Amino acid sequence: MATQNAILKNALIFFLFILAILAETAFSQNCQDTSCPGLKECCNRWGYCGTKGDYCGFFCFSGPCFIKGKSYGYDYNVDAGPRGKIESVITPALFDSIMSKVQNNCSAKGFYTYEAFIKAFKSFGAYKGKVAKREIAAILAHFSYGSKNFCYKEEISSEKYCSKSKKYHCEPGKKYYGRGLLQSITWNEYYGAAGKHLGLPLLKDPDLVARSPEVAFKFAMWFWNRNVRPALYLGFGEITKRVDGRECSNNWRRDGANNKVKQYIEFCTMLGVTPDQGLDCF
Ligand SMILES: *[C@@H]1O[C@H](CO)[C@@H](O)[C@H](O)[C@H]1NC(C)=O
């Protein structure tokens, strides 16, 4: 009788265990589709948001992952290869040739200027000296993708993207949707943290990003420096996840990621460097 009870107990425990696994799968938050709101959380391979090793460690999918020690060994480093000063890597003529492809009916036609581009670059310590041409190609690829080939300066959205942040309160009536060159940067936390770093009132006036080309470049570069740059040595694919993991999570979104890779290769060719080998983000 005692054995029978024990078997029954074990079976019950096992049953509950299976149920828990099923529930976890069925109700997963799936941050791979939406990204984790807030600056501090990582989204892991199973679609959960958190800040500990299970989220930000080896199985980190996107967000501020701890990426130390996760190296692939091959020629993955976007920070490697030929370098030069930003104004010699991207000359006014080259910049104009890129922007000349922007159609006249685009709302950002003529908005993104060379002067603003260089000024913004120079305001970050990382770009004061010589910069890797591959990194510049990667930046241009993501900026181009994030603004639909430099056609838009803000997302067509009525979403507020206001989360209950203790640190960065939303201003009444203001919306924190995507603006500028990386329109996947949304939410008050990002506007707040970027504004604090750049010394700009971006929480009070998020539209500043779509009014000033210099602020637009700085806003995107702040994100790049903070979230993307530490992953340069892991290859273009890992970078893509850190800009916006959504394209890497589903097969039906593969087109977006593949287009970014295509653009990266085009910009590498334009700058006369070979792309790295870590292109895929899946
Ligand atoms: C601009 O015009 C082209 C060709 O007429 C069209 O394909 C494109 O969608 C238009 N873009 C915008 C932003 O309206």
Radius of gyration, in Å, reads 22 Å
Count of folded domains: 2
Give the number of DSSP strands: 5
Query: What structural class is derived from the secondary structure elements?
Result: mainly alpha
How much of the sequence is in beta strands?
under 5%
Bound molecules: 2-acetamido-2-deoxy-beta-D-glucopyranose
- The global form is globular
Major sheet summary line: 3 strands, antiparallel
The CATH class label of the largest domain is Mainly Alpha
Give the integer mean of the pLDDT values. Answer: 85
Separation, N- and C-terminal Cα atoms: 53 Å
Please tally the helical runs, counting DSSP H or I stretches of 4 or more residues: 12
**Low-pLDDT ranges:** 16-28
Question: What is the helical fraction, as a range of percent?
Answer: 40-55%
**Helix/strand order, N-terminal first:** HHEEHEEHHHEHHHHHH
User: Strands of the largest sheet, in order across it?
Assistant: 2-1-3
- Reported by name, the CATH topology of the largest domain is Lysozyme
Which architecture name of the largest domain does CATH use? Orthogonal Bundle
